[in-house]
């Protein structure tokens, strides 16, 4: 059956816009904040190698699976999977995977908006010269002051959520496509400016060696982290890429397009690392600072090198734009679904869902200050407790949502999407959607989707849970 369906939500003007959109979704806090600090924590080159392998063998194949399900189904992920399952004579319950992904994306958005909000505060801080000549203590206190103040966190969280909703409410073409056409080139220019600057610090070589020096003894510790990060950074396992696939023109080749997105995402992560580590070294700091790297170490670095304030401003604008183009992709699957289901206007549906995410996000806001003692998933002396105030162990609200999504929901979603594309859809459907140039390429893609990616996810998932 030829695939002539179109989505009721609109369509990208060309496959380039799909690349822009999917890259916009993939490139975000994961690349600029998480990747450099994880590389720092897991010892540099060994982590980078593992990450690249996971991207190639698991991340990109799942992205391929999502894109082709989306384009074939031409609806929100839930309805796309439902109708394709019925068409293939399989259980309509496959759509539960997309439903779970949709919820996961909304949960991610709830905390992503809070962290992205921090970058808004830092834009202001860099712009006003507050970090000029700042000491380590001063930078730590500034970050602690921000996270300790629920009102300020709420303000930025609200603003960021509003910006996200604004783009989504305007629709696929007038909102998403139009903003992405501005955001993405801006993002690449900012990144190149930063890279150019780090080349002049005199520490480029040291940063480069840190990122690419391979120490085999460090490989083991980072494997699980690398796999989890591959999911997060490519935005796979939640349906974001699937919904963007639904807006993709029908004649565009999926294989090459998805490869381009995977490559661009990797390139941005590596470039961000190459741009940031020399700046960290130039300020005489250590790269293994953990999650604080971006909000504590970098302000010190920017505050104490030549032209650091301007570069710091450029950097935090980059972070905010990258986070914005990602956050919209977390909201779109649910908005598309409820528009299809309720027949209400996109603006109404967006407002309700954004408000919902905002409320859940308040849990994250409070988990850094007045609610820091609220602990979930506590394994204590009296056994397991879902919630306990002031418990020793356990996770804060923010940590719980992060853990639940990245470690559990994304891998499960990714697994289900790969199995669905590989084993439920017919070979003809796959052949038509992939439109591979040679049988060899087609078989390779099929093998990656059917076997390699699912096994990869399962191995890591089981190892992770049994830790
Ligand atoms: N890929 C984004 C990043 O690296 O920051 C995060 C993300 C976006 C996760 C969209 C999930 C998602 F649906």
TrEMBL record:
Keyword terms: Membrane, Symport, Transmembrane, Transmembrane helix, Transport
Transmembrane segments: 12-33, 45-65, 96-120, 155-173, 185-204, 224-247, 259-285, 305-326, 347-368, 408-426, 438-463
Localization per Swiss-Prot or TrEMBL: Membrane
Bilayer topology annotation: Multi-pass membrane protein
Top-rank lineage group of the source organism: Bacteria
Matches recorded under Pfam families: SNF
Similarity remark: Belongs to the sodium:neurotransmitter symporter (SNF) (TC 2.A.22) family.
This protein's name: Transporter
Organism per entry: Pseudomonas benzenivorans
Species classification: Bacteria, Pseudomonadati, Pseudomonadota, Gammaproteobacteria, Pseudomonadales
């Amino acid at each position: 059956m030829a695939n002539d369906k179109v989505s009721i939500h609109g369509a990208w003007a060309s496959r380039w816009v799909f690349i822009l959109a999917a890259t916009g979704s993939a490139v975000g806090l994961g690349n600029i904040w998480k990747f450099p600090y994880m590389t720092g924590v897991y010892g540099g080159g060994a982590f980078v190698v593992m990450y690249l392998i996971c991207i190639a063998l698991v991340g990109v194949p799942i992205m391929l699976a999502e894109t082709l399900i989306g384009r074939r189904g031409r609806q929100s992920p839930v309805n796309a999977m439902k109708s394709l399952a019925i068409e293939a004579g399989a259980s309509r319950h496959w759509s539960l995977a997309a439903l779970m992904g949709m919820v996961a994306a909304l949960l991610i958005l709830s905390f992503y908006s809070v962290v992205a909000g921090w970058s808004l505060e830092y834009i202001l801080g860099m712009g006003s010269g507050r970090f000029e000549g700042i000491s380590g203590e001063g930078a730590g206190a500034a970050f602690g002051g921000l996270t300790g103040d629920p009102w300020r966190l709420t303000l930025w969280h609200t603003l960021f959520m509003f910006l996200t909703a604004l783009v989504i409410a305007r629709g696929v073409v007038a909102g998403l496509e139009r903003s992405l056409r501005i955001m993405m080139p801006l993002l690449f220019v900012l990144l190149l400016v930063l890279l150019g600057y780090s080349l002049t610090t005199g520490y480029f070589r040291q940063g480069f060696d840190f990122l690419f020096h391979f120490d085999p003894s460090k490989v083991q510790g980072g494997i699980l982290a690398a796999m989890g990060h591959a999911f997060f950074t490519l935005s796979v396992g939640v349906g974001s890429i699937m919904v963007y696939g639904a807006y993709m023109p029908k004649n565009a080749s999926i294989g090459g397009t998805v490869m381009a997105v995977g490559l661009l995402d990797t390139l941005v992560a590596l470039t961000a690392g190459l741009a940031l580590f020399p700046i960290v070294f130039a300020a005489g700091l250590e790269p293994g600072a953990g999650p604080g790297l971006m909000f504590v170490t970098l302000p010190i670095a920017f505050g104490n090198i030549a032209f650091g304030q301007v570069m710091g401003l450029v950097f935090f604008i980059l972070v905010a734009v990258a986070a914005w183009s990602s956050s919209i992709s977390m909201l779109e699957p649910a908005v598309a679904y409820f528009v299809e289901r309720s027949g209400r206007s996109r603006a109404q549906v967006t407002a309700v869902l954004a408000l919902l995410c905002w409320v859940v996000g308040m849990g994250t806001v409070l988990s850094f200050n007045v609610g820091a003692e609220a602990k979930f998933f506590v394994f204590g002396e009296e056994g397991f407790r879902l919630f306990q105030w002031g418990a020793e162990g356990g996770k804060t609200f923010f940590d719980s949502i992060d853990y639940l999504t990245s470690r559990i929901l994304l891998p499960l979603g990714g697994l289900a999407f790969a199995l669905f594309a590989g084993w439920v859809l017919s070979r003809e459907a796959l052949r038509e959607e992939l439109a591979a140039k040679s049988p060899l390429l087609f078989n390779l893609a099929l093998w990656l989707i059917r076997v390699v990616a699912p096994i990869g996810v399962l191995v890591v998932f089981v190892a992770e849970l049994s830790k």
